[in-house]
Specification:
It is built from four helices and seven strands. Helix 1 packs antiparallel against helix 4.
Length: 249
Amino acid sequence: MSVDRVPGRRQRAWPVLAASALAFVILIGLGTWQVQRLHWKEGLLATIRERMAMPPVELVPALKADPGLAKQEYRPVRVEGAFEHRFERHFLATYDGEPGFYVYTPLKLDDGDWLFVNRGFVPDGRQDPATRPQGQVSGRVAVTGLLRVELTGKPSSFVPDNETDKNIFFWKDLHAMTASSGLPADAHVLPLFVDADKTPNPGGLPVGGVTIVDLPNNHLQYAITWYGLAAALVGVVFVWLRRRSQPAV
């Protein structure tokens, strides 16, 4: 029986080892990135919970004192003004599994500025204000709710374009809402939204308090997956090297 040691066998292993090492570094990097994202997401969720537990602040004075407030997503605020229901915009949504719309109505403030308020949900077929006249409150009102930031662009390429001519919005494009609503051309609209709380509206519609705080946090699973693949790669390379180290018979 003779042992056959193939010439150059060891040298030919180096490209495989180099590629494996590169793949290992990439997999570990991806896992570490997901761990970092996990810490960031947990911090964000903690910040949201803290903000939502705060008492409401008067929006207009608070904005003048701190313009950065406009970026404090989910901060409870209070604002007064008069609704202009004829300018309301409709955002396609579901509530408790029922299809319908969120009603975004411009609120005219004392200083002449405007603010779009998400007054809440109405079922499909009730978006016409004539079907819910009791809820079209007139005169001065006080709204308490959560501050929502203005979107800078479509959230995803999978989201359809807004059908402004039909008053159907698939994403909250403040500029499109303003331009299509019929507000005066010189109207100054605050660069944010307010989601009204659950305070009942006359007639029961719209249904307020519809804000959904649902930020997916799957980063731990992703990190385990990438680290697991890195460990599997190490195992495969180890077995491969052991087999190569055995002399061919």
